[in-house]
Amino acid sequence: MYDMTNKTTIVTGGGSGIGRAIARRYASEGARVLIVARHESSLKETADGNPNITWLAGDITDDAVVEEIGRYVEKEFGGKLDVLVNNAGWCPVQQITEITVQDYDKAFSLDVRALVALTVRTLPCIIAAKGMILNMSSVGADHPAAGLSMYIGAKSAVSQFTRVWAIELASKGVRVNAIAPGAIETNIWNVTNMDKEAERRHKENIARSIPMGRFGSADDIASMAAFLASDQASYITGAIMPVDGGQGAF
Ligand code: NAD
Predict the structure, then answer these.
(1) Contacting residues for 5 by C-beta, under 8 A, at least 6 apart
(2) Atom 21, ligand 1: which residue's CA is nearest?
């Protein structure tokens, strides 16, 4: 649908869920995609033999891994990066009465610090390509909910970075956007600290609060990511695009 032939792209958190769907969508449009996540097995599963997808296994909260990604772009992508998708994220579900400072560190080191580190490291290559930075925010950034303070705090930073960087980089021909997904059916819902029954009830309650009455799919987010990376979106920057079944309309 959107021609991305020979565009160079990075998708963090490309080993599952939304990142996997975006990586596969970009590759199917002809882009060269580097996916990054911690486990090689899940990255291989995403690539599934597709020659357009290569991977680098590593923890992006580690600055040495960020440096390795930067070098990869310089060497393998010829120093030009058309699209950086800062997608990797983690969502602790805890009230402030139970939260620990370690939960804060884990959420902010991945959802915020690693996003900044990778953006800063690859920015010269993004500027060289007049490319786009695409950050994964959340509907929660503008619609707070109990139990999500660390996550919503982190995603609020992601949304605001998106707006400020868009203003700063527009004159260099670089667009900066974010997607604000609502509830999307992925593994992120299975790695909370809730037991299975509490988790099921939590998801049912959320589905009831969505005007469309159901969770979205990772492919719904990939469609928006493909549109934003395309020439059709060439006048869109500083936008936080909701893909949420109407959840953010309240
Ligand atoms: P997911 O758990 O399937 O994906 C998260 C990915 O990040 C995984 O591939 C994981 O391996 C990777 N990751 C985690 N820690 C990492 C690290 N330290 N280094 C490198 N990679 C790491 O969940 P998802 O739903 O696909 O989440 C993708 C993004 O979408 C996240 O930023 C999340 O906050 C955001 N989001 C998801 C939803 C939803 O309902 N699923 C809603 C709003 C926003």
Answers:
(1) 29, 30, 31
(2) 37
